[in-house]
Amino acid sequence: MRPILIALLLAAPATAGVYSPTDDFIFEIDGQGFARPVQFGGGFEIFLNNTRAVAIEKAGEPVNHHRAAALDRIRTRKAKGVPNLTPEELAGYTADLIRAGRGDEALNLLQPLTRGRRAGFIPYAHLARAHAGRGEWREAADQQSVALRDVDFPEKFGRLSPEQLRWLKRVERDYYLPLLAHRADEARFTRGGSAPEDVDPLFPPVPPPRRPTDPVRFEEPNGDYKPGSMPEAERKKLPPDALAIVQQLVLWHPQDARLYWLLGELYNAEGEVEAAAKIMDECAFVMGYRSPVLRKHKLILQDAASTQAKTRAEEAAKAQAAQAAEAQAARDAERDYQKRKWWIIACAVGLGVLLVYYQAREVVRRFRR
Q: Per the domain annotation, does 221 fall within a domain?
């Protein structure tokens, strides 16, 4: 993995399925069309927290600036009136509604626009996301299917380049639609039941209505789970940009603990044990996702992360001690050098004085003669 860190950490990310003309694309696309992931600490974690902040509203507390900016845009566009909005303004309006936790408003606004299938791709995509936010997975999958089958994917939108749009189309078609379809199938059999025990079977991609038969596994065949790695046979099922794909989907569904768990598994597969442990701990204790498999993996990774942190601290202490010893040796060497220098100067001065004395004595002797 070659993670990248984006400098504009406060910019809003352009998330798969939710499009706003002011969004920035946070990934770098390589020459083969694959996206490079963003490193977790100080990078993706900040993007995710900023996205989540738009939906946070606490009684009696000031509104955070991410949510305040989104609400300001919503008020401005609502006052302008939907018929007077350009397609990109309408996209930004409904995107802000979805991110601010007002998906019902987006749903009511978009449904009339998509009747008769005359709307463009983005209204259908936002309608699918609004349904998904309500747990209406079958309706979300149906709208996403219409968006990909019956309307054209945009060739130009906001700040997105053609190669970025091509990558987003791939994410929409190969991963997001199968995710919605799989969640819809699960909902038929687990209505009112407990949370699924495993991650979403996104890899390798299986287009609906087919169902995944051999999804990627992160445990060894004997059930062992290893920190910082995954079975090589299973790794072959992942595309080169699997981590970036799931980062994009998590930004689209920032409160979806199951997707976030999958992101943690992929970070662990890339050797990012501490990031994976942090993600899984948040899934379990902050987001309240209950799964024996998640708990098992989390405990293993926490032990490994603790060991790594201890080892790193010991290595840092050793490095610091070595630097201190080196600095002390340099100071000792400098002190010895100064001693030698002043000894040489003193000897030279003494010798000079002696020579002057003898020379003066010789002058006096000759004068007397």
A: yes
